[in-house]
Amino acid sequence: MDLNTITDLVRRPSDRPGAAWRDGDAWLAGGTWLFSTEQPDLRRLIDLTALGWDSLVPSAVGLEIGATCTVRELNSFAPLSDWAAGTLFTTCCEAFLSSFKVWNAATVGGNICMALPAGPMITLTVALEATYTLWAADGSERTINAADFVLGDHRNVLGPGEILRRIDIPVAALRKRCTHRRFSLTRLGRSTLFLIATQSPGTADLLLTITAGTTRPVRLAFDAMPDADALRERIDAIPEDLWFSDPNGTPDHRHHLAGYFAEQIRVELTEGGRP
Question: FAD-binding PCMH-type domain: from which residue to which, for each copy (predicted)?
Fold first, then answer.
C-alpha cells in the first residue's frame, strides 16, 4: 500500500537512530505490516536495514539474533548439534500467516514489536527464555525478559523512539528438550493457540508457554512434572481477561484447547512419546 502521508525517508540513519526520533516517525525494517494498512499519522520512515546489524551470531553462551534478521534467515539457520530446542526455529517460522515470499522481508524484531497474540517470534523467544536489548532515544540501553515485553494485544513496553536492537537466547534454553502444539482453523491459518513446552536435560521440570490464545504470553513453570490435576489448576487460574477473542476463537474455546493440549504435552514429556 502507498503511504501518501510520508514526506521523508531516512535511508542511512545514525548508529543510534533514536536520537533523531520525532512525532510522526516509524522504524522501517521488513515493512510487511507497515505497508499493509493506512498509516495516516506517519510522516517519516527510518530504514533500519541500512545499519547492517548481524542477523544470527551463535556462541558458547547462546544465540544473538539481530532485530532486523529476516524470517528466511532464521528458518535457514542450522542450530548447533547440542541445541535440541533449535527445532523450534523452523516450527515458529512455519506458524506465520504468510507465504515464504514474505519471509524474505519480514523481520524477527518486527514481529515481536507488533505485539500481536499470534506473533510466532514472540512465542519462540518467550519459550526459549530470551532477553531483549532495547535502545532508548536518549542513548540509554536496557535489557528486559522476553516474557515481560508484550503488555497486551498490540501493546508493548517500548517508549517513544525506543527500539528493539537484539534478542539473546541462552544456551541452557537451547539445550532443552522441547515439544509444541498449535491449533488454527485452517492448515495455514492464524494461530488460535500456540503452546511450547521445554524441559531441562536430566530433569522432570516443565516450562509451558501459552500464546496466541492469550493477549500476552503466559509462562507456567514447574520444578517437577505436575500431575493432570495440578496442571489443569494452573491453566484454570489464568485470569479470564487474558484469554483472547477474535474470529479465530472465543476465550472459552482457547481455554479449553490450552487444557487439552497441555495434558498431551504432559503425557508426552512424562512417557517419552506422543500420546
Answer: 1-174
